[in-house]
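cron nightly-structures :: item 1 of 1
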Amino acid sequence: MILNKLLTRILIICFLKMSIRFKILGCGSSMGVPRIDGNFGNCDPSEKKNYRTRCSAIIISKKGNTLIDTSPDMRNQLLKNKIKNINRVLYTHSHADQTHGINDLRIFYLKNKKKIQVYADLDTKKYLLGNFKYCFKKTISYPPILKINPIKKSHSFDDKENRINIKSIKVKHGEIQSMAYIINNKCAYISDVSKIYKKDLKFFKNLNYFIIDCLRYLKHPSHYNLEEAINLSKFLKPKKTILTNLNAELDYQTLKKSLPKNIVPAYDGMTLKL
């Protein structure tokens, strides 16, 4: 029995070192769960998976970590998940719940002794430079810690053994655009979306994982609701659909029991092997 436990630990360590992993750092809506006033809404406080920080995710590989969005909860997210380094950041859009943790990237600049590479579309770039100029431009007190780069249709990072290929696709998010990311043609991450354009639907079909915005039960002008997310999953036919950006209306266990077998609610810390 002791030998079996030892072998299991060795296998887990090997898996962590060799594979590329996708980790959901936060799966909550812009106010999180509980909200700042302690309100859990319909969520049961005794269920740990109902504690949701603001949306963010990370791609972990042997050669480096690619963060998606710098949420206001980023500091606690990285500490909780023992993330020791960030090599680059991809932004989905400019809203505060995706950007306002940006200052905490400073430690990784100091640790690596070089600027962190940041990737953003034009609107998000303007927002970041307008509100966090000191992170990008030299000031009297501080050196710049970040270098901003345009989002391309595709990006490749790391070496041949741990290649991360990321396809970038614009989606509608209410009155603005947001970025959807497809990693290694296996996993789509779309945290904030009200519409995927018809011409792009083909890119999201038959994936291993489809991580999709699902704010609440009722319709919303900037987000998919539960019915829309389920219908989209049925059309795209991924192996597994994971619902994220969940607000306080959506209790984890209640939601889980109501879903088709291949659809599950996200929870903070959920990890997928790519």
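cron nightly-structures :: done
The chain has one domain: 20-267.
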